[in-house]
Amino acid sequence: MKCAICKNGETAPKKITVTLEREGTTLVIKDVPADVCTNCGEEYVSSKTNKELLQRANGSLAKGAELELLRFAA
């Protein structure tokens, strides 16, 4: 797909690292599937993947974690 940010690059599937911060908790998730612009590097995560990331973040908050490192496995 054409990049919505730079309008010049095309996106390609890659694995990225996502860092989420909320209420004093930092969650780092590695190997998240995304489409990344080959020109500017903008990262696009699907709505399904985004939903999973938010569920993991809520789980970490519920456990009272301050810092957590996870590997994404769909």
Structural overview:
The protein has one helix and four strands, in the order E-E-E-H-E. A hairpin with a 5-residue loop joins strand 2 and strand 3. The mean pLDDT is 93. The longest helix is centred in the last third of the chain and has 17 residues, at 47-63. Strands 1, 2, 3 and 4 form a four-stranded mixed β-sheet that branches. The chain has 74 residues and is of the alpha+beta class. The chain has a domain at 17-33 and 44-71.
Cα radius of gyration in angstroms: 14 Å
Number of H/I helices: 1
Largest sheet: 4 strands, mixed
Shape category? elongated
Structural class: alpha+beta
Number of strands: 4
Mean pLDDT: 93
End-to-end C-alpha gap = 22 Å
Summarize the amount of helix as a percent range: 10-25%
Order of helices and strands: EEEHE
Share in β-strands: 35-45%
- In the predicted model, the low-confidence regions spanning at least 5 consecutive residues are none
Keywords:
43% strand, elongated, alpha+beta, four-stranded mixed sheet
SSE layout:
Blueprint: E1 11-22, E2 25-37, E3 43-44, H1 47-63, E4 67-71
Parallel strand pairs: 2-4
Antiparallel strand pairs: 1-2, 2-3
Brief overview:
With 74 residues, the protein is an alpha+beta fold.
